[in-house]
């Protein structure tokens, strides 16, 4: 269901790097490939310093459906990934938890999602104790997406 291309629409996180560099956010896409029927190969593309970068990750299946483990180097760098809610044709909300820190990401099949989907995302963000002041909206390659999001109040 999650296979294919996704656009990062919004993210809620207390990450200090994100807060300090939020004015430099660039359009980000993710391509998901299901491997062996369970694990996911994730390829994330984003622009940085006028260059396109690809980040490849492998999400391993965890103990329950919709749960994955992203392993880094060393024990303390593992990230639990949970599919919070998804409609494979339009959006997916993912939770990323490392230790006591949690982030919530909203991906869409297009770079714009409906108000109903955005409302679901905002409810999920509040449910984990995050707020609007740590929620960031990502621009599209055209740049007009940011303007639309700022006018949606």
CATH fold-type name: Lipocalin
Structural class: alpha+beta
**How are the strands ordered across the major sheet?**
1-2-3-4-5-6-7-8
Count every helix, treating DSSP H or I runs of 4 or more residues as helices: 3
Task: Spell out the helices and strands N to C.
Answer: EHEEEEEEEHEH
What's the average pLDDT? Answer: 86
Q: In percent, how helical is the residue content? A: 10-25%
Q: Which CATH C-level class is it? A: Mainly Beta
C-alpha end-to-end distance: 31 Å
Radius of gyration: 15 Å
Quote the beta fraction: over 45%
Strand count: 9
- What is the correct CATH architecture? Beta Barrel
- Low-pLDDT ranges: 143-153
CATH superfamily, by name, is: Calycin beta-barrel core domain
Give the overall shape, derived from the CA principal axes.
Answer: globular
**How would you characterize the largest beta sheet?**
8 strands, antiparallel, barrel
Q: How many separate domains make up the residues? A: 1
Please provide a written account of the structure:
The chain has 153 residues and is an alpha+beta fold. The chain has a single domain, classed as Calycin beta-barrel core domain (Lipocalin), CATH 2.40.128.20. The chain is 17% helix and 46% strand. It has helices spanning 16-20, 115-127, 144-151; strands at 4-12, 28-35, 39-48, 51-61, 67-70, 79-87, 91-98, 101-108, 135-137. An eight-stranded antiparallel beta barrel has the order 1-2-3-4-5-6-7-8. A hairpin with a 2-residue loop joins strand 3 and strand 4 (51-61). It starts with a strand and ends with a helix.
